[in-house]
UniProtKB/TrEMBL annotation:
Keywords for the protein's UniProt record, in alphabetical order: DNA-binding, Endonuclease, Hydrolase, Nuclease, Restriction system
Family in the record: Belongs to the type-I restriction system S methylase family.
Any one GO molecular-function label of the UniProt entry: hydrolase activity
Record bears the keyword Nuclease: yes
Name the record gives this protein: Restriction endonuclease subunit S
Enzyme Commission number(s) of this protein: 3.1.21.-
Gene3D superfamilies attached to this UniProt entry: DNA methylase specificity domains
Organism superkingdom: Bacteria
Xref: Pfam families: Methylase_S
Domain Type I restriction modification DNA specificity: 97-226, 352-473
InterPro entries, alphabetized: Restrct_endonuc_typeI_TRD, Restrct_endonuc_typeI_TRD_sf, RNA-helicase_DEAD-box_CS, Type-I_RS_S_subunit
Protein's UniProt keywords contain DNA-binding: yes
Annotated SUPFAM superfamilies: DNA methylase specificity domain
Length: 502
């Protein structure tokens, strides 16, 4: 028996009327532009190039009353290395650490890959202090100034190199990082799935030039922010050195892990460097702990715990020196403009130099908002996606909200110093224990129970404070730098918008 479709037939005009009456189309962003704009520049037909936001940015620049030059007139030639074959070194001593675009934006950039020093790639990827690097693939337009820490790395071809000439680098960076600069950069991006940007797009970005004393003032504030970040990183380096020294721990190296030796059977190939011996290991059945995923049993975490037991202080589980360890529940997020909301920290923000694309939760409409509020002195650990990134809540972030993807460690101040806990979890001794406990198929996860079970040396409180206070100061400086930089960027925006309004 065939069932007939009895749904009424709707004409095209009726469907059009339903669409109009639904009202959802009202939220579609619309912009009207003169027809002759289509024939200017690259003859772009994509709507994003002509958005109202882009028009507002152009008006702010054109009506500011200051001299305006395109970017290429106030810089050396803008370029990037171009695609190249990456040949990685087998050991760090034979290579230069290499950073991707997202890694170069991190507060403490680190690399596990090294470009071989005997290749031309190292030379073309080197950068110099004072250059501005601009991401050109994926999320385009994000900027960073090369300082003494970033200058030690080879940088990906996904970063456009900009060298200021005749304008202070700090002012140029602040302008390019402002919403006006970001819109004028990103409007030229092209590509469907992955967005891209080319040097000639960046070269044509208009740059307003206020009086030199204003440029110098903004430059000084940006440079002060970067100096604070350098000081913060030096404090963290010192805390890490002290931690190993005071706890009697060697610098962790994977060569210490007791993997099974390579087989010596004569039938196995010995001249195949592209086929290294796999890292094999054995485990007793009594040690399975109801986990059958091999990553849980890799002996690297067990080796870390063994070295802790050989140190100066007996390790205890993290839960015994913490007042609480919390994973907040999932929730529906109600975002609002900045002036009506609470800053909302997400897992991706934790390693960043400053929080990019920060959103704000409604103070009045977000039900039970206090469940996601974080407080000064709490240690944060990413527990979903990329596991084990560590942060410390400073006075700047006190009473912000945080995602459920950030696990909260609330220290017991009579047992554990928050800076000491954060410093330990950032070492390989903490990281290997955290990542060994990952579970999940598509998305990695970490539980409160597994975090409580992490072993940490039970050092006397005076030693914990000696290490931990440096960490606390470092995160205070990091967030102070973010506040100073944000204020300098806002100053550029207000300067241009006020002149436009006048």
């Amino acid at each position: 028996m065939v069932e007939m479709n009895t749904a009424p037939i709707i004409t095209r005009e009726e469907r059009r009327q339903q669409f109009i009456e639904s009202g959802w189309w009202v939220s579609i962003p619309l912009a009207t532009i003169p027809a002759h704009w289509l024939y200017q520049g690259e003859n772009r037909l994509d709507g994003g190039y002509y958005t109202a936001e882009a028009n507002a940015a152009f008006r702010a620049v054109n009506d500011c009353g200051f001299e305006v030059q395109v970017l290429e007139k106030v810089t050396a030639p803008i370029w990037y290395p171009g695609r190249f074959k990456r040949i990685y070194a087998k050991s760090p001593t034979d290579g230069t650490p290499f950073l991707t675009a997202s890694e170069m934006l991190q507060f403490r950039p680190t690399s596990t890959e090294y470009l071989a020093n005997n290749t031309s790639a190292v030379d073309i990827c080197k950068v110099q202090n004072g250059w501005i690097l601009v991401t050109r693939s994926g999320t385009v337009g994000r900027c960073v100034i090369v300082g003494k820490r970033l200058g030690k790395f080879a940088i990906t071809d996904d970063a456009i190199r900009v060298q200021a000439k005749g304008v202070p680098v700090g002012y140029l960076y602040a302008y390019l990082s402002s919403w006006i600069g970001q819109v004028l950069i990103s409007k030229d991006q092209y590509g469907s799935a992955i967005k891209h940007l080319e040097p000639h797009h960046l070269a044509n970005v208009p740059v307003p030039l206020p009086p030199e004393e204003i440029q110098a003032e903004i430059h000084a504030e940006i440079m002060r922010a970067y100096a604070l970040r350098d000081e913060a990183n030096e404090l963290l380096d010192e805390a890490d050195r002290l931690l190993h020294e005071k706890l009697g721990l060697p610098v962790f190296d994977e060569s210490l892990v007791p993997y099974l030796p390579a087989p010596s059977a004569p039938c196995l190939p010995t001249n195949r460097p592209e086929m290294p011996h796999p890292k094999a290991f054995s485990i007793r059945a009594s040690e399975l702990a109801d986990r059958f995923d091999a990553s849980f049993h890799v002996p690297i975490a067990r080796t870390a715990v063994k070295l802790l037991r050989d140190g100066l202080y007996e390790p205890v589980q993290l839960g015994s020196i913490a007042d609480d360890i919390i994973v907040a529940p999932r929730f529906k997020r109600i975002y609002v403009p900045k002036e009506y909301g609470v800053p909302f920290l997400q897992g991706s923000h934790l390693p960043q130099m400053r929080p990019y694309d920060l959103k704000y939760l409604s103070r009045t409409k977000q039900t039970n908002l206090e469940r996601w509020i974080i407080h000064k002195g709490w240690v944060l650990v990413t527990c979903s996606g990329t596991i084990g990134r560590v942060g410390l809540v400073s006075s700047y972030m006190d009473k912000w909200a945080a995602s459920q993807h950030l696990l909260r460690i609330v220290p017991d101040y009579h047992q554990g110093h928050p800076g000491y806990i954060a410093a330990f979890l950032m070492t390989p001794y903490g990281q290997h224990q955290l990542t060994a406990k990952i579970y999940g198929g598509v998305v990695d996860e970490l539980t409160e129970e597994d975090t409580r079970a992490v072993w940490i040396p039970n050092a006397p409180l005076e030693i914990q404070r000696e290490i931990g206070e440096r960490v606390v100061q470092a995160f205070e400086k990091k967030d102070e730098a973010s506040a100073i930089e944000e204020a300098a960027i806002r100053k550029v925006e207000n300067l241009l918008q006020k002149r436009e309004a006048a």
